[in-house]
């Protein structure tokens, strides 16, 4: 029995925050090794952060990524564990989104991304080029400072797989999981058993269902082990990456990480029986027939064993039932996690919300309330990082820390009802009741005097004073004798 313990992770990486990103990568590798894993994969572009945008066009961004990788290789982090680390790399003046495979303080292969994401919120073609050359691996000259540290001048670069003495592994990167002619098809026919996907996939409603279905289908049709890693957090931009790292085997999910979490580092491991992959493929006659036609895929041969010797008590990880949040939970948890992440990393002290009692502002208030509940839940679970952030933002002193979501909200969430003579008692009472339920520090501030002052100033400057009248389904604005009709949000002269 060939047993292989593998580890994947969710990391909260921020664009251009190299120190924190490097610390999280090191922590994830250390946890994977502590769990006994001999293979570890991290998210796409984990050293730089995924959302660097036009900073990717700066040479320094790539240079700092190499400095981080050199730091990792200088220590014992990659001793006896194969690590896939995501970073940008410039090869012959072209920038690629790459996975760098490291083992025992050496770089054994660099795999550039071949299918870039360029629709929806993604603009990878703006910063990277897709690798299209599949015939053979080429030599990549390592930067001098890296070369001197690891005593290695060149490394294989391109599309291919790693052939160890007892297992074969290959990479897919994010978008390649969803492409019609995915790299894993030819790789599976070439005998690759473990696929490692470094991803930077942001949250969309029900998107997790698509990811899980794709991983299941990928391993159900071709057999094999699929390791999926993802970012988790807001990355400093307007998107939220929802994590949910996974490990799938032959169509079944055997390990699933959290989809919404406030953790900076989450590591997931599983013990895999690779003979089950061989048996699964051998039982499908159509797979055998197609695989018998030799597909030439370049490979790097590594004279090293990764599989563990079977011992009593070593049982492969069983399939699990995938956990999905309902749509209402996704709507609440995604924005809540984004708000907390941005609040703590921006070093701000809280949020201020004009709470009108209407649907929009009330929804935002409810999301902040949900954020406070998530923080307390993680503190109760013993998350020291969340606890430290909450103590700093809430300005707790003398060993005190938050234990109640409403008390925490009172310290960092301020709501204001800015009423006028036109406001209703219904909206005023709704705003007050919601603020009390959430626990925010609530103000009821009449602004009639402010409105009056503004109108007086406008009249003094223009000689006109606006008056409003509702007629049918149009609003007529009367500026003395001139009438303007408001349609579709615009003011047009009649």
Automatic annotation (TrEMBL):
Enzyme class of the recorded protein, top EC level: ligase
Ranges of residues in domain CN hydrolase: 4-274
Organism taxonomic ancestry: Eukaryota, Viridiplantae, Streptophyta, Embryophyta, Tracheophyta
Swiss-Prot/TrEMBL keywords: ATP-binding, Ligase, NAD, Nucleotide-binding
Keyword Nucleotide-binding: yes
Keyword Transmembrane annotated: no
EC number(s) recorded for this UniProt protein: 6.3.5.1
Pfam family, one: CN_hydrolase
CDD domains xrefs: GAT_Gln-NAD-synth, NAD_synthase
PANTHER family in alphabetical order: GLUTAMINE-DEPENDENT NAD(+) SYNTHETASE (PTHR23090:SF9), NH 3 /GLUTAMINE-DEPENDENT NAD + SYNTHETASE (PTHR23090)
GO cellular component assignments: cytoplasm
Pathway(s) per entry: Cofactor biosynthesis; NAD(+) biosynthesis; NAD(+) from deamido-NAD(+) (L-Gln route): step 1/1
GO molecular function: ATP binding; glutaminase activity; NAD+ synthase (glutamine-hydrolyzing) activity
Family designation: In the C-terminal section; belongs to the NAD synthetase family.
Domain of life: Eukaryota
Coiled-coil intervals: none
UniProt-recorded name of the protein: Glutamine-dependent NAD(+) synthetase
Reactions mediated catalytically: deamido-NAD(+) + L-glutamine + ATP + H2O = L-glutamate + AMP + diphosphate + NAD(+) + H(+)
GO biological process: NAD+ biosynthetic process
